[in-house]
Amino acid sequence: MIKTTAMFSAHTIHLLHVVLRDTLIFFIILFAALFVWLKSGINVDHLSFNQYKVDGLYIKLDKKLTLKADTIIIPKSKKKPNFDNIDQVLDRVKYLLTFFHYIELEKVNFKDNHYKLVYTDNILYITSDDYEIAGNVWRRGKVMVADISLFYIKKEDINMVGKFNYDLHTDKLILEGSYEAYNITGKFKAVKEDHNLEFIVNSNAFGDLKTFIDRIPMKKKLNQWITEKIRAKKYRLYSLTGKGKVYGSKFEPDLHSLKGNALLEDVKIYFKEGLAPVKAEKILLNYKNGGLFFNVMKPTYQNREINASTVSITNIGKGKIARLDLDMHFNSKVDETIQKILKAYHLNIPVLAKESRSKVQVKLGIPLKKMPNRKIDVYVKAHLGKGDFYLQKMKLPVLGGEITYDKGIITLKGIRLKEKWYEGTVEGKVKAKEKKANLVFRAKKIELKKKGEILFSLRNKKIPFDVAYAKGVQISLPAQKIKVKQEGKETKITVNDIAKVKPYLKKLEVDIDGGTLEIVTKDFSTYTFRGTLYRKDCFIYDNKVCYTRVPCFGTTSPQGVDFYAFDKRLHFNSAKSLIELNGLNIDLQKFLSSDMRIQKVKTKKAKGGENADQGKKEQYQI
């Protein structure tokens, strides 16, 4: 708004300058001709001499002369007007006017323009194809001075009232007064000398900015932001000062000299299509260094406060791509409302904090030009309160911490997690586009219990892990050689080396030294498993071989464990506290923990079939 006001002001001042020069030339020629006509005698119907033509001339003498003419044609002159004796010429014109009570020249053709001139009561009124002007002109030394009671530019619908001082010898114009244009009123002062222009403009409060801005040539996107994206019920320009160069009708502003400030009241900022606007009581607008800076006062978004927020449009100028910078600070719950802002810019920041307030900063840098690879810069920083952090459907309960998004990277810092069975902090980076994360969990504790009995316990351990969540969720713990994959309703846990986690297993019904295991669940209540268990010493044997590795499978549920090994030749049912052996010999005291009481309950010959040659089938009660 401020820069375009400068362009408008310079154009208007230039036009007034041209009007003054042409009007003066016009009067010098016209009154010189009138003086000749009065001296030579007048033909009432028609008068012509030296290419001058007058039709319908009427002169009446009543104390003073009354002069009327229907048409006057003034020929073009190739000679450049000479202003060396302008002070004497003005005196002659002024002296000549003292003889007239009233002058009305209905149509004067001069320099491809059509004029009407009326002079009465020392007031001169001129209208042309381009403008209307009325005022009282006099000479002060070699300077022409005027009180302008009317200056109307027809094409632009601009009215001006004021005073000017114009020195034709130095080509210096000093103009000040008031204006009314495009439903805006205000005051101005300008000094033009040769091609140099200095000005200051202000305005009263007004409500229609679009009518004015649409008159100014500018990029469509910038026009849209000024007139549609930032809307106010009231505008007021406190001041705009600057300098520039004027060449004909062209104005070249000195962008470094432009300074201005304005007030916008009852404002709505429509920063993204599809989102509700940011509302503000007031915006203080400053223009400096080629940028518009909006100091937003008491802003809100969806009835929640935005703290210390700023808006700016920078990089304004010919050949440049203007840029909108938006900086919003929320002290709010991170809920669907905040998430909607982020997702509007295709940002998946996997955080919801509905229970407590979080401090959230959202910074956007938006080029105001459509282009194939337009890049919007986004920066998000949140000091989280109590809530949840999501990686796809994996939910982590958060107590606090800091999360930032910058250049496609989500950085987690000091994210405190706490659940019934674990507690600690998470740090690391999430690559949003690739949907991958490299994180570290500093575990204060991880503890699994069953019926009050600790099965797994880990404390004060640093656990690096990787997450991929493009399709489902895959978690990899390299140090523990564990992978977890969640897809749909199914979760699969792969343990590639049981020995890595054995130190944290506190109660094993089967004593093992290592092995591999794959565990699958759909409801985190019933699990199926398959793998190979390993013990250093031999505890299961038949007639031919002693086994240290046990291929196994089975299920575990709230009802107990069903454990099968060696193609079901070994079956352990925890619900019945029963072990069945088919054609196998086992050192039960080695196989099971030493504190179990074991009693043989049944022995029978195996029936024919695939296991008939394996010997006897035995059962043991535990």
**Shape field:** rod-shaped
- Care to count the β-strands? 44
Roughly how many Å is the radius of gyration? Answer: 46 Å
Q: Assign the structural class, choosing from mainly alpha, mainly beta, alpha/beta, alpha+beta, or little secondary structure.
A: mainly beta
Short summary:
Helix content is 13%, strand content 56%. With 622 residues, it is mainly β. Strand 6 (113-120) and strand 7 form a beta hairpin.
Description of the structure:
With about 625 residues, the protein is mainly β. The protein has seven helices and 44 strands. The protein has a 41-stranded mixed β-sheet that branches. Strand 19 and strand 20 (about 305) form a beta hairpin. Helix 1 crosses helix 2 (about 85-95). It is rod-shaped. About 25% of the residues are buried.
Which helices and strands appear, and what pairs or packs with what?
Blueprint: H1 2-40, E1 46-49, E2 52-55, E3 58-62, E4 64-73, H2 86-97, E5 100-110, E6 113-120, E7 123-127, E8 131-140, E9 143-153, E10 158-167, E11 172-181, E12 184-193, E13 196-201, H3 210-213, H4 220-229, E14 230-247, E15 250-253, E16 259-269, E17 278-288, E18 291-297, E19 300-301, E20 304-305, E21 310-314, E22 323-334, H5 336-344, E23 351-367, E24 377-384, E25 387-391, E26 394-406, E27 409-418, E28 422-431, E29 436-450, E30 453-468, E31 473-477, E32 482-487, E33 490-495, H6 498-501, E34 514-521, E35 527-534, E36 540-541, E37 546-547, E38 549-557, E39 560-565, E40 570-573, E41 578-582, E42 585-586, H7 588-591, E43 599-605, E44 616-621
Parallel strand pairs: 4-5
Antiparallel strand pairs: 1-2, 2-4, 3-4, 5-6, 6-7, 7-8, 8-9, 9-10, 10-11, 11-12, 12-13, 13-14, 14-15, 14-16, 16-17, 17-18, 17-19, 18-21, 19-20, 21-22, 22-23, 23-24, 23-25, 24-26, 25-26, 26-27, 27-28, 28-29, 29-30, 30-31, 31-32, 32-33, 33-34, 34-35, 35-38, 36-37, 36-42, 38-39, 39-40, 40-41, ...
Helix pairs in contact: 1-2
